[in-house]
Design brief:
This protein is an alpha+beta fold. Helix content is 40%, strand content 12%. It contains 18 helices and 13 strands. The protein has an 8-stranded mixed sheet, with helices on both faces. The protein has a 3-stranded mixed sheet with strand order 1-3-2, sandwiched between helices. The longest helix is centred in the middle third of the chain and has 27 residues. The two termini are 20 Å apart. Belongs to the amidase family. This is Amidase. GO terms for molecular function: catalytic activity. It comes from Acinetobacter defluvii.
């Protein structure tokens, strides 16, 4: 099989070729490795490799729906025993820290037949919607190399879109599957809270706001992999209700005519680009042509307050992580990025009362969404407020850095987040990606579907949010949209 053929198929198709002995898993791995060497110097998507381990694994017999296909892990909470991991941070990279055990999600991916051969670029601790860690450098978007691939699963998105692998590991705590899916023209679904595992080191991440899954070119790859990985584990806080059938089988059926609400307005009052508006209007036309009813309305939720509650959790979790790494690995302030230290400083000053109030507010948002879904089947918004930003476009201005350093030295950086500056901080952090946090805080499943490319051939996804546990509804609709407006041919226009 030549690379030009390898690039034309999704993961299930490649696994079928292996099962029918048209190609071996070793040959596929070699093609994936050749593609990595060809394009990764331009993309900087794969930052840690484990080719020799993968080569040995490819020679063994595998089972599962994805038996023998090459795969990439995200360098964040997707640890592979005996392989270095950095979490996008110099604090681990400098130590050459090696994972002592498999993450449960990695074990399930291997049980599905996937053969990991590397880890992909991620921002430090996954705290940004772009992938530009100081530890590894910026990850470039294969549609336009001057642009970023998004975050925090940016390396995985870049690798899949560029044809290194058909499917790669990802995770989503504030949009980190859907944002890079939008920027890189991929399909990405964030499962419901508890649908996929976080063990063995954690029972859940960010109080259930974060989920693990994959980024793919095809809907069926995502559905099939969710079949192989979904379900509770021994340390799960609760057992989510099982789906009514296999997702891969359910997507063979078109959904009934759906009542879909939509909004294009930013919930935090920031600008939404013409591309994002055009993407949703085009999606609405497609939905209506398929028999769905679409009307403009939004949940009765204070978007700025929700953003504040998200930021409190996000920043506090960052503060905990920095302290954990200092305690466990002896990391010093110089081992972390300035932005990470500033975020951690803000988070460390949140009081217990603030944090508990914040979590109580989460329940109010869940209630609001439950009421909303009594009248609507799905909620549609842009996945991102614009196409991918250019590398370096989202960064702390040079003039602010000495101020931050001084405030950090005096333990006063948190003062920047007081009073009216809170809203400025939120808008500055979330203006590019104001739509995704709602699904994380409420634990709802949500997906980004690639249905739009602008005149510069940059993609922008349409986000759909569904009621809790209804990944089946999202996947059914996505498969219908994919059939009506196929996006796989678009990948032939990748620039690398």
């Amino acid at each position: 099989m030549k690379y030009t053929e390898y690039d034309q198929y999704d993961g299930l198709a490649l696994a079928k070729f292996i099962q029918t002995k048209q190609v071996t898993s070793t040959e596929l791995l070699q093609l994936a490795w050749q593609r990595t060497q060809q394009v990764n110097p331009k993309l900087n998507a794969v930052v840690i490799t484990m080719y020799e381990q993968a080569l040995q694994s490819s020679k063994q017999k595998h089972s599962g729906l994805f038996s023998g296909i090459p795969f990439l892990l995200k360098d964040l909470h997707q640890e592979y025993q005996g392989v270095p991991t950095s979490f996008g941070s110099n604090s681990l990279k400098k130590l050459n820290y090696v994972s002592t055990q498999h993450s449960e999600i990695v074990r399930r991916w291997e049980n599905a037949g996937a053969i990991p051969f590397g880890l992909t670029n991620s921002p430090e601790f996954g705290i940004k919607g772009i992938t530009e860690p100081e530890a590894w450098g910026a990850c470039h978007n294969p549609w336009h190399l001057k642009h970023n691939s998004g975050g925090s699963s940016g390396g995985s998105a870049s690798a899949v879109a560029a044809g290194i692998v058909p499917i790669a590991g990802a995770s989503d705590g504030g949009g980190s599957i859907r944002i890079p899916a939008s920027y890189c023209g991929l399909f990405g679904i964030k499962p419901s809270r508890g649908r996929t595992p976080w063990g063995p080191k954690m029972s859940e991440a960010m109080h259930g706001a974060a989920s693990q899954h994959v980024l793919t070119k095809s809907v069926r790859d995502s559905a099939a992999m969710l079949d192989m990985t979904q379900g509770a584990e021994q340390n799960s806080l609760f057992k989510i209700e099982q789906p009514q059938g296999k997702y891969l089988e359910l997507i063979q059926q078109a959904p009934r005519p759906l009542k879909i609400a939509f909004s294009i307005d930013s919930p935090i009052g920031t600008l939404v680009s013409q591309d994002a508006k055009a993407a949703i209007l085009n999606t609405i036309k497609l939905l209506e042509s398929l028999g769905h009813h679409v009307e403009e309305t939004a949940p009765k939720i204070d978007g700025m307050q929700l953003a504040k509650d998200f930021i409190i959790t996000w920043f506090s979790q960052c503060a905990f992580t920095v302290q954990q790494f200092k305690r466990e690995f002896g990391a010093k302030d110089k081992d972390f990025e300035l932005d990470t230290l500033a975020i951690a400083a803000f988070g460390a000053k949140a009081t217990a009362l603030d944090y508990i109030q914040n979590l109580n507010n989460w329940g109010n948002y869940v209630q609001s969404m439950n009421h909303f879904f009594e009248d609507y089947d799905l909620y549609l918004t842009p996945a991102t407020a614009s196409v991918a930003p250019k590398n370096g476009e989202i960064k702390t201005p040079a003039w602010q850095k000495p101020i931050l350093k001084s405030l950090l030295k005096l333990d006063q950086a948190h003062l920047l987040a007081k009073g009216k500056l809170v809203e400025h901080l939120i808008k500055n952090n979330l203006q590019w990606v104001p739509f995704t946090q709602l699904a994380n805080i409420t634990g709802l499943p949500a997906m980004s579907v690639p249905l739009y490319w602008n005149k510069n051939n940059l993609p922008l996804g349409s986000q759909f949010i569904a009621p809790f546990g209804r990944e089946d509804l999202l996947l059914q609709l996505a498969a219908q949209l994919e059939q009506a407006q196929p996006w796989m041919p678009k990948y032939q226009n990748i620039v690398v």
